[in-house]
Amino acid sequence: MNDAEIKAKSDEIVRLCLVKWKIKNDDERILKFKEELPYFIQEFDDSSMPMIENLLQRFDYFSHENVNKRLVELYNKISEDYDLDPMLTAYSTVKSATGRINSSCDYISDFKHFNHISKNFVFTDIDTATRREEWLYFDTVVLVDDICGSGDTLKSFLKDRYDVFKDKRIIYVVICAMGKAITRLEQFASENGFNVFVECSVRFDKALEDSELKCRKSEFKGLSESLGIYGQDIFGYKKTESLIAYYNNTPNNTLGIFRKKTNKNHAIFPRDEDTKISIEDMKKAREERKRNNYNNRMVSYSD
Questions:
Q1: Structural contact between residues 126 and 157, judged by C-beta atoms closer than 8 angstroms
Q2: pLDDT tens per residue across span 85-98
Q3: Are strands 60-62 and 169-178 parallel, antiparallel or unpaired?
């Protein structure tokens, strides 16, 4: 495609996507999407572009306003369907295995705020909450998250805390969930004695495996590798093949071409790749600080 054709194609995709995503005001990520899309389109030839357009037509972006609207809808639904008793319901997140903050922390805060839930029933650290006396009296625990792609994170979370959750009704509230993940969670709960219910705003299937593009998976893999995307990044975490991005980040479940920045790939919804902790780098930084402190003291003494 020439420059004029690329611009026309880009403008049309933007127009259709903004209508589908119900975008009223461009946020930072939408502006980035508009900026990167023409360069993204240039990466694909005439034979692969129809496949990319097919995926873009099914891609979902959730603005902050959209997410909050869905969090309110989900709260109203579970309040009615499960007859929640406000005094006997605790709210929390699926705690990260590393103990670090994750996207669900953003969601539980908004869930509490927009649904007017008392802070005394919302727990940022579930393990601390389970050691409190009131935990014995909660009959329901609502766990809030952004996406359920494979269900493995929740399964590990519950298995590690069997004794504190075995007698609770657990409602897993997520914006998006894969249909197969919900089925696996229900089976896991039945086999392990948990009482788990999954409530989601959007249910999705694998972008390639469960669509007319299934026969082009090998082609997609080769295309991704040609753009510097390899391994688990190609089809997303646990090969989830999702087509999802949120206002605060893009899940690692999403197909790599849309979220993984490389020298060859202009990701339209890049995932934040936080700096990893390196013990060696920390040691070096600590030694450097010691040297600087020592030198500063010597200068001070000489003065």
A1: no
A2: 999 999 999 988 77
A3: unpaired
